Amino acid sequence: MIPIFILTTVVLIEKKPVFFTAIASIIFASIIMLLFYTFFPAFYPRDGHTEASVSGFLVEVTRSIDGSNNTFPSGHVTFAWLMVFFIGLSNFAQKYKWIQLAYIVWAFLVSASTLVLKQHFILDVFSGISLATLCYFLGKYLVFERMLATN
């Protein structure tokens, strides 16, 4: 997820207002998630049993880094959908229409994988999508519109 995150915010978003709006929205989402994780920790029960395979090993490494107390809302889902919203505003996506669809498919796969890997409940996924939408419009209202007005 991190390479796509960097690629989207640094390389594909060429417009300054879109870039700063994306960064502001990411910060808003991070603060809101931190508040939820700190004051309303939600846990997903993990059984500790995964396959003896490369993918099973990677799931165990991920679980050792990422605790089970930060499931609501899903950060992976939130950030994936924020990238979908912001890539749609880029010149790159306007020129190459397939890129928006690729990001939507990727965000759906991120959302589904959190359920399949038993990292989140369905409510965590929907709350992540809702948080992304809220932070997108909040950033657009507080940053994007004001930057356009000053230019």
Mean pLDDT reading:
84
Order of helices and strands: HHHHHHH
User: How many discrete domains?
Assistant: 1
Rg from Cα = 17 Å
Sketch the major β-sheet: none
**Helix share bin:** over 70%
Low-confidence stretches: none
Tell me the distance between the termini.
33 Å
Structural class of the secondary structure composition? mainly alpha
Proportion of beta-strand residues: under 5%
Overall strand count? 0
Described by the principal axes of the CA atoms, the overall outline is: globular
SS summary, helix count: 7
Summarize the structure.
With 151 residues, the chain is mostly helical.
Description:
The protein starts with a helix and ends with a helix. By secondary structure, the chain is an all-alpha fold. Helix 1 (2-12) packs parallel to helix 4 (75-87), helix 2 runs antiparallel to helix 7 (122-150) and helix 4 (75-87) runs antiparallel to helix 6 (98-116). The chain has helices spanning 2-12, 16-39, 54-65, 75-87, 91-95, 98-116, 122-150. It has one domain (2-150).
Tell me the layout of helices and strands:
Blueprint: H1 2-12, H2 16-39, H3 54-65, H4 75-87, H5 91-95, H6 98-116, H7 122-150
Question: Any descriptors?
Answer:
mainly alpha; 151 residues
